Amino acid sequence: MKSRRAAVFVILLFLVLTFGSLAVVSEQAPGKAGEEESPRVYTQWETFYKENGLPANKVYCIAVDGDRVWAGTENGLGLYENGKWTSFNVQDGLAYPAVLCLAIDPETRDLWAGTMKGLSHYSAGRFENFTQLNSGLPNDVVFGVCVENQNIWVATTAGMGCFHVTENKWDVYTPANSPQHEPWGYFVTYADGKVYAALWGGGVLEFDVATKGWKSWLDPDGEMEIDVFRDDGLIHVITTSVSYVDKVLWASTYFGMSRYDGRHWRGYIEGDSGLPSNFINMVKARHNVAWVCTDRGLGTVNGDTNRWVSYVPSDPAWKHSRTPVGADGPLEGTKGWEAQIYDDSKLIKTVKLEHGLANNHFYGVDFQGEDVWVATSKGVSHATWKGGNTQ
Amino acid sequence: MTLKPDPGWIFFLSITAVVGGALLSGFSVNSAQPALQAQREPAAPEPQSTANHRVSKYRGDKRADYAVPEDDQYKSPIQLALSKDGRRLAVVCENTDEVLIVDTGLKKVVGHVEVGDHPFGVTLSPDETRLYVGNRRDNTVSVVDFSSLKVLQTIPVGADPHQLKTDASGRTLFVANMRNNNISVLDTETFSEVKRLSSGTTPFGLALSPDARTLYVSHQLSSPVPFRTPPVLELTVIDVKTKLVTGRRRLFSTVVGQDVAVSPDGRFVVVAVELPKNLLPETQVYQGWMVTYGFAIVEAGPRGRVAYFLIDEPNLYFADPYGMAFSPDGRVLYISSSGVNYVSVVNMEKVYGLLKIQDGKFGILDDTIRLYSRHLALSSEYVEARIPTGNNPKDLVVSPDGHWVYVANRLADTIQVIDARSNQSAGVIDLGGPKTDTALRRGERLFNYSTISFQKQLSCNTCHPEYHLDGLLYDIVGPGDGMGQNLVDNRTMRAIAETGPFKWSGKNPTLARQDGPRAAQLFFRSHGFDKNQLQEIVHFVESIPLKRNQFVNGDGTLNEFQEAGKLHYERSWTVDGRYIPVGNRCIACHLPPHFTDQKMHDVGTKTYSDVESVFDTPQIANVFDDGPYLHDGRCYSLEEIWTVNNPDDLHGATNDMDKRMLNELIEYIKTVSARGPMSDEELLNTLFPPPRKGAAVLPLEDLAQITVPPARYVGNKVCAGCHISQFKTWLGTKHARTYVMLQSQMAKTVAKEAGIKAANPQYSAFCLNCHGTASDVPVEYRFPEFRIEEGVSCEHCHGPGEKYASKEIMKDKQKAISMGLRLLTPQDCLNCHKPKPSHTKLGRPPFDFEAFWKKIVHGTQLDPRKAIKSEEYKGM
Amino acid sequence: MKRLLSALFTMLAGALLSAALLLSGEDKASKPSSSVPSSSATKDSVAQPEKTATGEAKKRELYGNVSEELEPFGRFVQEPYHRYFVPSDAAITFWGPGREKPDPDVPTVKIGLLAPLDRSHETYMGISIKRGTEMAIEEANANGGYRGKPFEMVVRNDSGLWGASANEIVTFTYDDKVWALIGTVDGANTHIAIRVALRTDLPMMNIADLDPTLMETRIPWVFRVIPDDRQMAYTIIYYVYKQLGLERVAILRANNRYGRFGVAQFRKGSVRMGKPAPIEINYEVNYEKVNVDFTTQMDRLLKAKPDGVILWADSEPAGHLVKKMREVGLNIPIVACERVVRPEFLKIAGPAAEGVIATYPYNPDADNPRLVEFKKKFQERYGEPPDAYAVHAFDGTQVVIEAIRKAGLNRYKIRDELEATWHWQGITGEINMDDVYTNRRPVTVATVKDGKFVFGTPKLDRVF
């Protein structure tokens, strides 16, 4: 027993000396923060609610298709076209009213919608539905969907599936035939020849389409209740989404966010960064800026500079009480919204927003050129970028 | 190239399954190799790489038995393409895998080019330098230089490429992949596929609008619809510039859509269609209402309306419309009726008049449209001529000056020339090919010719387009049947030779029976075929091949999921460790060569409209193509057979699987295609894997008393080793599924009424007295290989085999008997086959010895009737 | 020993840089700076100490009542970078909208019950839960229901074919329109359920799934009144290693999520106690009764020569396993999970069960008048005494009913009320919620004596 501990300590000491000095060197690298305005501060927001034509206020997901925008809500599919919303629901052929995720095929412009009871394929006015009873769909509750070439990947609540549309073939993946630590798919996306999946309790999974090889990332400390070291790897196994852009992997969890550039992991939690909350429903990157959908605000961070712009309600309820218990009516936005600019974890500026966002509980985000669309628990927000900041 | 999984690896896998089981497959590879080699020899011959439809055996048909050399020399012209100057006519000959070039001036063949297997669609590039030809069995497109007639390139596309078209620039080529339900978009410079667009079910024809902006896609079949629901064909609208689907029009109550054409002014799109009367019992045919023929006319532009017009006459039908072409001025529309050998000339001005066209829109109410769609007498208004053609007229084209119409007479090997000015035939252009008619050729004509039926209403081809199916459910009620229900899920004609009995009820032992009096009475309502005709058509049908299975890899191998599925297909243990009796495994009933045991089984699919609970086991080669499924077509997808319609695990043990396993099983089943038969060795190894360690022991409850038998029970494998044919007979009987049937809800109710205490009848020693074998003997009296679950197995009737079941002893019958081999007496049967009040619920007929004996008899050696005089057992 | 050593190294290797900084850093309050070049964490944290993620490094906030010596990485880092599920961390709560939704007018107030009632090896638990819930709802209706309206129980099976359980929750939310959900037993199904509940905003009261990770997902919609396997495992660890002084303990468990996660904390804890990592032997779960031949398991046990066995199995297989163990002469201490405390276990194991110890979430023999009353009623009605699931179902349902009565017909306010319910006097005893809303009341044990379970024996030096 003693001998072992001694050994550990020696090695520890050794590594301290070597890497410790390295770390010091790296500290001296000049921080780019402030040099450029990235992320930008979006000040022009418009919001849409049920009264503006949304099928329902609770919007789980949003997807941009050129000049059209699709919104998956709790009660139907919304399509924003030429300035107005139209709705699709079961009577139009949708598999189920509650739409959890969306993906658009860039080639055919077909829409794939994962609902709580099946996968819907919308093509030029025709719905085609896949369920766990009539197709190879692993489970009816489809949390994530993405398009990989001519294949559709789904992350269902009980396994992942790959539907080869042109051949009408299904591949079903569960822990039994892939390195999934849990079958509970939560999110799936495709980039650079690889499919990335966020597995609830199973970390992040990568599938190389060419080699059919799997790679898996878990929380190195393997504990639910702590994060032992900050940047030792994926922050937690309860992952909720993943985004891979410009060779950088972003993973969101309910315990903070992780960034992996292929060599270093970087962790972000509330307090050590501008992250509004550790409870993150989705992260999606555009170039080197990640948009982070949390339950208490919308964060944006430049992965290179760690400069944050977070969109949060001014003086929200959570500043005053630990929980909303007993609160009545809406908690958020009553005192307006602001964009908080952080240099890493340091608040350096606050910009008051003229128009607030729909709600502080964010579910999803997508980009339309320079514009941004976000889905929240209560409505949709759209930020326009008309060349340069207005402040 | 091969059309079926190589028998070699199938055998290898079954060995794998046996030796290794799912987890150990890797380990058994070596052990399987030598056997694999041995197995290759007897198996079916490898297909040649080209023109493989001539090699027939392995495709589950009997063409090789009937075909004579001429049968491979018929041209069977089907699709046409005409040059802008009207001089050069490209004729696709599907039987000889070539395209002939006809000089319309000289009226003779001036050139030809060999293309891929079974060519179909053909189109010219706008600059007429190239000819594009779709090869249906190769799943490729041949790019042919139109002047040198050399094949420049062969481009892979989807399954069963049908018609094709280029855009105005010729840069993009659209191909309808009939069995993929999508459209390949090809770049004709890089010869590569740009994308696939989702179409409707079985895309068939393509037509470009005059301004070349829009491409219209017609479809042969409707997406599956429930019984007594009108089918709906899709007309897909594609924007040529953006290469995107912009609309999907629905043609109601139509099926078997064929050619599509756009009026020269671009205002209307027409599709040749059938209007089936599948909503009512088919007694209609007497009243002249089983199916009618005509065309749908659709307003171009978004959300346009659809109208339907018939080309039939009140007492005469123009079956199976196929080709469509407008005259250049758009005044008339030519429609070929391939079932009656006529071209109808439709005066479109009259049609527009009836539609009260105002600026490109119909001016009449929907009710009027509905009336017109049923109006048989209306055709006299707009059909201005009927021009007779040669046999089976298919595609037709009109010369640019509008003077001539050329029609492909598919079963006459000629091009019909029609003088459009006089609407008279101007003779035919001979394409070569044998001048004599072979039996198969005559049979094929009979299949396609509707003369056989009352008022020429329908041909076999009407409901079996492409020698396949129309995807509809019919209520076939004979004249005597009154208005009762007799659901028929239309079935394919491909590779059905040697799969008798026919019809899901197994009523018809032979095709001759099915196509003879039955067809005459129920479908054609006519004299039917005469003796010779009957033989010819049966032979033709028996020589229809399977199509290439698109789910198997090109080299005949399976992917990892399909491989895993094969193990599930043959497995003998459930995930939760229960033994699966041989009689409830996929492979037992759906086994090579046709993946049917040609027996009747009760798999728990009886429904309200059924009298019997046993159904013919369908052959499942290329089953992915045969939906809807189950005898009454209640399943639109293979999944539903097990996820919805197998609650008691009677149709194979599947409910212990998770979705991954079920999916693997289904992905394998999709790859199943006709192959060489299983050798007895292969079958035995598959059905009798070695007993596994710590195997599940059937927990017996309410065991009344233990009886010590004279010898130990050895299990079926020992008997089957020598008596394989007897074993197969037994496997096809209910005796092999008596334990399985105890899973049913019915069994639980019966058990309750019979006062069985056991929670599950399968654990009840009382039930197992008859539903199992040796359930009441001490454990040590059952060999490890022996399973009670095998139901009424060999030793149930013939006694425990330990002492007699060896070759030496069995050689001497008397010795065997002295060692315990039991000769049956009717009494043995009556031990179980006695009236059981608790079983009356099942509504089984009383035990009729003769009838039941016929089902189980295997070899007359032990016929109990030898044991006693006939009058003693009569009427037991 | 070797394996353990290498394991420790690999565990450390990835993280050592920050470890180094941690150990060398003099300011314990500031969190470690990062090795990522662009990072400037230290600077900031100094600039704004109130934004530091961790509390005072000296003071240890331990989640799950874990003891210092069992704390993960306890002996390698003085303080982890961040602790979740502790007061210093953000509360697990719901900050989204919904509380403003008005109460609808409905004839009955529906409460969903999702439990394995068919085709499952856990059906016996499903039935118990159903009975407990039934009785709680009837009692509530006897006392006026919800403002005069009756509560109604909507029951669905959570082990239907082809992954139907997920659909059932969707149906509960959108079709049945229940106000809260009681149930689920199977770890896998429960995890599926809570994720759907999270998306559909449906409060869920768990009363029978002891999987610790279930509550450690930061889902603010799920609550649990039954103590979990962390507590069981910690208790067992102290009993077998400290009290009995055993060295080599084997784990014999069901090969499913229940078995895997039930023993996870025991496995880790053994190592932290400096004991050899327990060898783990599992058996295939199956809802049919046909696999009772456990030869392979016994062979492996005999090879391992353990001086004690931890048994995590359902009551019936557990019965057969214990029987076999005694048959093959393994007369070593057996400490089992709560699921064995059932008549079937005693019936199947027979005399072999003598001396088997089981941890249990509550004390059925407690002289709590309400409990005594409940047991009497239950016995009369169903002809058998209630098991742990029935009583916790009763308590859980009562908590939910009380929350509905307070909050009104609004799922968000009902959730808030459940969150606010830190303490509850149940028939199972005191219910004390911790920061993940699971009941941290200490567990108890029972020993089989003369063919029945005697609770509270043996006396334990330390319970969790």
| Average of pLDDT of chain B | 88
Ranges of chain C with pLDDT <50 over ≥5 residues? 1-58
Number of strands of chain B: 32
Runs of chain B in which pLDDT lies below 50 for 5 or more consecutive residues are 1-57, 867-876
Kindly state the percentage of residues in helix of chain C: 25-40%
Binned strand content of chain C: 5-15%
Radius of gyration of chain C from CA coordinates = 23 Å
Helix content, binned percent of chain B: 10-25%
Structural class of chain C: alpha/beta
Largest sheet of chain B: 4 strands, antiparallel
Order of strands across the widest beta sheet of chain B? 1-2-3-4
| SS field, number of helical segments of chain B | 26
| SS summary, helix count of chain C | 16
Strand order of the largest sheet of chain C: 8-7-9-10-11-14-15
Overview in brief:
Chain B is of the alpha+beta class.
Helix and strand topology:
The complex is a heterotrimer of chains A (391), B (876) and C (464).
Chain A: H1 2-27, E1 44-48, E2 59-65, E3 68-73, E4 76-81, E5 84-88, E6 99-104, E7 111-115, E8 118-123, E9 126-130, E10 142-148, E11 151-156, E12 159-164, E13 169-173, E14 185-191, E15 194-199, E16 203-208, E17 213-217, E18 226-227, E19 239-245, E20 248-253, E21 256-260, E22 265-268, E23 280-286, E24 289-294, E25 297-302, E26 307-313, E27 337-343, E28 346-353, E29 362-368, E30 371-376, E31 379-384
Antiparallel strand pairs in A: 1-31, 2-3, 3-4, 4-5, 6-7, 7-8, 8-9, 10-11, 11-12, 12-13, 14-15, 15-16, 16-17, 19-20, 20-21, 21-22, 23-24, 24-25, 25-26, 26-27, 27-28, 29-30, 30-31
Chain B: H1 7-19, H2 21-40, H3 63-66, E1 77-82, E2 88-93, E3 98-103, E4 108-114, E5 119-124, E6 130-135, E7 140-145, E8 151-156, E9 161-166, E10 172-177, E11 182-187, E12 192-198, E13 203-208, E14 214-219, E15 232-239, E16 244-252, E17 260-262, E18 268-276, H4 284-287, E19 291-299, E20 306-310, E21 321-326, E22 332-337, E23 342-347, H5 348-355, H6 366-374, H7 379-382, E24 383-388, E25 393-398, E26 404-409, E27 414-419, E28 424-430, H8 439-448, H9 460-463, E29 473-475, E30 487-489, H10 511-524, H11 531-542, H12 560-570, H13 586-589, E31 600-601, E32 615-616, H14 638-643, H15 659-671, H16 680-687, H17 716-722, H18 724-731, H19 745-753, H20 765-771, H21 794-798, H22 807-811, H23 813-818, H24 826-830, H25 849-856, H26 870-873
Antiparallel strand pairs in B: 1-2, 2-3, 3-4, 5-6, 6-7, 7-8, 9-10, 10-11, 11-12, 13-14, 14-15, 15-16, 17-18, 18-19, 19-20, 21-22, 22-23, 23-24, 25-26, 26-27, 27-28, 29-30, 31-32
Helix pairs in contact in B: 1-2, 1-12, 1-16, 8-11, 10-11, 12-15, 17-18
Chain C: H1 2-13, H2 16-24, H3 41-47, E1 82-83, E2 109-115, H4 123-142, E3 151-157, H5 164-176, E4 180-183, H6 187-200, E5 204-206, H7 212-215, E6 222-224, H8 229-243, E7 249-254, H9 257-262, H10 264-272, E8 280-283, H11 295-304, E9 308-312, H12 315-327, E10 334-336, H13 343-349, E11 357-360, H14 369-382, H15 388-407, H16 411-420, E12 423-426, E13 429-432, E14 444-449, E15 452-455
Parallel strand pairs in C: 2-3, 2-4, 4-5, 5-6, 7-8, 7-9, 9-10, 10-11
Antiparallel strand pairs in C: 11-14, 12-13, 14-15
